[in-house]
Structure formats: structure tokens, C-alpha cells
Amino acid sequence: MGWNSWNTFRCYDLTEQVVVQTAEAMVASSMKDAGYEYVVVDDCWQEGTRGEDGRLRAHRGRFPSGMAALGEQIHDLGLKFGLYASPGRRTCAMIYDRYPGIGLGSFSHEQLDADSMADWGVDYLKYDWCRANRGGTKLDEPAAFAHMAQAIQNTGRPMVYSISEYGRSKPWEWAPQVANLWRTTPDIGPSWRSVMRIADKQHGLAQFAGPGHWNDPDMLEVGNAGLSPTESRSHLMLWAMLAAPLMAGNDVRSMSAQTRDLLTDSQILSIAMDPAGRQGERTGRRGKLDFWRRELSDGFAVGVLNRARSARGLTTEDRDRLGDLTGAVDITSGEIGRFDLTLASHEMRIWRVRS
Ligand code: GLA
Fold it and tell me: Is 187 an active-site residue?
């Protein structure tokens, strides 16, 4: 769990001040207490050229204090420090977002870059593919990610290793040996459509995840404009059922009390962070209703999502389809054993059954 800069701050709005203020807000808002730990600085932290020593360096205008100082400030708050890099010659910001002079990749500098990260106190590396093969570079995808895994290991500093190749070459089949988490889809966006598209693409991937190696359906859009409060809540619930890494992607400094309460909702988070680490999945559909189930260390959770543009009532058949729900607690209302519900448009409900 943590926070990542990209969904809100993209490139030019990313500054060391934003990162430090966000880390402070994570502490003040109780997000840290709820388990959000990693503060990940995504693309655009770098200068577009290496220093004379060949090392990556922080963007001088937006990160004037440098990465070691930033890491120290994050650590002083009791949080962990994450940074972004790419295996090719350029990062995504340069390729897709046309940010000139920003976004230098790690190609042929893998060990040096891993060493820099370790020197700066980095605890989490996001390594993002970004058409690493363009411009005549011939990189084998799994090998390129394994190369950086080895470079990190050589530093002797433990880092969470998050890889991102958008599900292009079925990373769930090879990445569990290499990385702690791997993206399964293209980028999420702040819309219900995007959340649904990504949730649907997780189908069939549950068997590949487990403690220490996770499918990553991408960072959260919870609390961002483009999702209603109901949609944000369903989005977080789906990611909880998916045992997904939870990286907040909102402006934590200015979030509403409602967004803070949602991100720190202990009922949802205790499902998300269940120690057994078994990913849940969609188990069925009726019309616009999706049914979900996740096995938990002390029982299981089932959920119903209403994808329709209007409200839908649950029938007794729907309840029967969810299995034996004796003693089931609706984690939204706290009510026990009640299913005669109507779900608002895009609403999700989860029931938890303890064995
Ligand atoms: C890619 C990744 C995003 C983000 C951007 C940064 O699109 O998938 O998560 O890191 O690059 O440029």
C-alpha cells in the first residue's frame, strides 16, 4: 500500500514540495496508520541527461534538493521511498507525453542506476517498459526485467520491485520469479469505463498471485474527478477483492473527508490486506450484476456489483448464488444477514463471512 504521483501530478506538476507535502498529509490523515506506506515518485523526477559521472540525476528545477534528501524526509516521517525508471533509452513521459528532455531510461546503465537508487535510500522501484525496443534497441522483455532484478539484488538493499509492461506478454506467467508485482493492463484513467475495463481483464489471473507476488491492476483513481463517490467506493472494493496493491493516486493534501474515510475504511482494507493473500474473482453474472468471491484466512467475502445505469434489486436467486451466507456481515452497513437490498447504479456491496 502507498501512494504514487502519476495519476494526479503527471509530469510538470511533480515537485519535491508536492511529494513532501503528500507524505506529511499521509501521516496527518491517518493513511499511514491505515497501512499506506510507500511514497512512489513516478516518471519525470529526472533530468533528461546524465551527470558527468554517468548517473541519473534529479530534475534541477523541480527537485532541487536531490533524491537522497527527499528519501531522508520520507523516511523521517516513517514512510518508505519509491522511484520510477525504465529499461529502454527513454521513459514513457518522453515517448507518449512528449515531455522534451525528461525521462531518461536505464538501458546499458542498469547496475549504475540500481546503485544510485540504493544510495538514495530507495525502497521500491517501479520499472516501466515504455516501448523499450524502439529506436533499434533489442531487448527481450522478461530478460530486461530480470536484469534489473539482479542489479537491485547486487546492491544489497531490499526493494519492492514493481514491473509494468501493461500485460503485453502475459507477465503473470514469468514475473512471479522476478518481481513483487506486475501490471496486468494498460493504464487506468479517472473514469468508470476505465475501472470496469481493467476489472474485467483480471478474470482468470487469480491463480498467479500470492504473498510477495501480485497481479497489479494499476493505481487507484479513488477520489479523483471523473468517478462519483459511489464509483470510487466500488473501485476500492473491487481492488480489495482482487488482492491488488493499493497505491492511492489522488491529491492527498486536499482530499475530502469522504475520500479520506474511504481510503482508510478498515472493513475494506482488512479484506484487501488479508494475510492469506488469495486473489478473488468474478464468479458469475446476471444481467448487469457481477458476483464476486474472495477466500480469506478466516472465511470468505462475496460481493455484488451493479454495473447498470440504474438501481437493481437483489433477488433470492442472487443470494443463493452467493453460497451459504449464514452470519454474513454487509461491510458497508454493518448489518448481519440482510440481502433484500437495492443497489444504486455502480454500487458494490460486500458481505464477509467468518468461519
Ligand atoms: C506509463 C505507466 C504509467 C506511468 C507513466 C509515466 O504509462 O503505465 O503508470 O508510470 O508511464 O510516464
Answer: yes
For the question of whether the overall pTM of this predicted structure is more than 0.90, the answer is yes
- Cα 6 to ligand 1 centre (Å): 7
Q: Can you give the pLDDT at residue 97?
A: 79
Q: Which CATH number fits domain 2-272: 3.90.550.10, 3.20.20.70, 3.40.50.2000, 2.40.240.10?
A: 3.20.20.70
- In this structure, the residues whose C-beta lies within 6 A of any atom of ligand 1 are 6, 42-43, 91-93, 128, 164, 187
β-strand partners of 282: 292
Give the closest residue (by CA) to ligand 1 atom 1.
92
Residue indicated by cell numbers 470510487: 232
CATH homologous superfamily for the domain 281-354: Golgi alpha-mannosidase II (2.60.40.1180)
Q: Helix, strand or coil for residue 345?
A: coil
CA distance 255 to 206: 32
If you ran DSSP here, which 8-state letter would residue 105 be given? -
HSE-CB at 342 with a 13 A cutoff on CA atoms is 5
How much distance in Å is there from the Cα of 35 to the middle of ligand 1? 24
How do the domains of the chain map onto residue ranges? 2-272, 281-354
pLDDT of 319 reads 92
pLDDT, residue 133, reads 86
